[in-house]
Amino acid sequence: MRHAALCLLLLVAACGGKKDNGGGEGGTGAVSGSADTAREQQRFDSERKPEKVVEALGIKPGSRVADIGAGTGLLTVHLARAVAPNGTVVATDIDGAVLELLQSRLAAQGLADVVERRVVGAETPGLEAGAYDAILLAEVDHYFSDEVAWLKDATEALKPGGRIVISNRIHHRPRSMEAARKAGLVLQSESTPVPTHFIAVFTAPPAPSPGKK
Questions:
Q1: What is the CATH number of domain 2-7+52-203?
Q2: Which residues in 170-206 belong to E strands, given as ranges?
Q3: Cα angle vertex 95, ends 116, 148, to 5°?
Q4: N or C: which end of the chain has fewer CB atoms below 10 A?
Q5: CA separation for the pair 77, 104 (Å, rounded)
Q6: Averaged over 97-111, what is the pLDDT?
């Protein structure tokens, strides 16, 4: 996770510079920062097709979904819209500073009340058992030192019929798919909505039949 933390810290520095440029509220710096954030979101939405991730998660108003390694919230805003007004997104990250930037992005969209920010350990999901309709890992699973153990722990957080969705760059696919297989997850579907990224949808392994060991 050292590379993840380094990337996040670099991102915080870059985004923080934009946010603080120009001084107080209402100044040209605030306007510029807002415009930069909007352009960043527009570019991300165009390149990554986040609506396909939302579709894969199968979430709707009232759902509870975890966004693992949420960072500054480029995907989180889409999850929040999907579960609003009475659902919840639990956005986790190892760095509280980037979650502050996430909060700013959500507040600008009127979605802050839908999202719970949560700082977690680098190797643990930090999610309560049996509480989630879906768990999203977007460009994060390859940072875990033991992906199999992490996925097994995360499975415990799913509601019956819940989904774990992994989205990552194509070159990480073999590692992601093998870890999911070893964790006992069941592949439900897979797609490549953009040439650079895959989306794989998994469910928990079926419970053993009564009487079987």
A1: 3.40.50.150
A2: 186-194, 197-203
A3: 85
A4: C
A5: 11
A6: 95
Residues whose CB is less than 8 angstroms from the CB of residue 180 and which lie 6 or more positions away in sequence, other chains included: 151, 164, 166, 187, 200, 202
CB 174 within 8 A of CB 142: no
Structural domain spans, the chain: 2-7+52-203
- pLDDT recorded at residue 31: 55
The whole-angstrom separation of Cα 28 and Cα 35 is 10
C-alpha–C-alpha distance, residues 123 and 130, integer Å? 19
CA distance 98 to 88: 19
Distance, in Å, from the CA atom of 123 to the CA atom of 194, rounded to the nearest integer, reads: 29
Q: Which residues pair with 48 in a beta bridge?
A: none
Q: Which value, to the nearest 10 degrees, does the dihedral of the CA atoms of residues 105, 108, 110, 114 take?
A: 20
pTM of the model: 0.83
Sequence-distant (6+) residues with CB within 8 A of 106 are 73, 76, 77, 80, 112, 114, 115
Cα–Cα distance between 180 and 186 in angstroms, integer?
Answer: 8
| Average pLDDT across the chain, whole number | 86
Model confidence pLDDT, tens digit, residues 139-155: 999 999 999 999 999 99
Structure tokens at 74: 């480029």
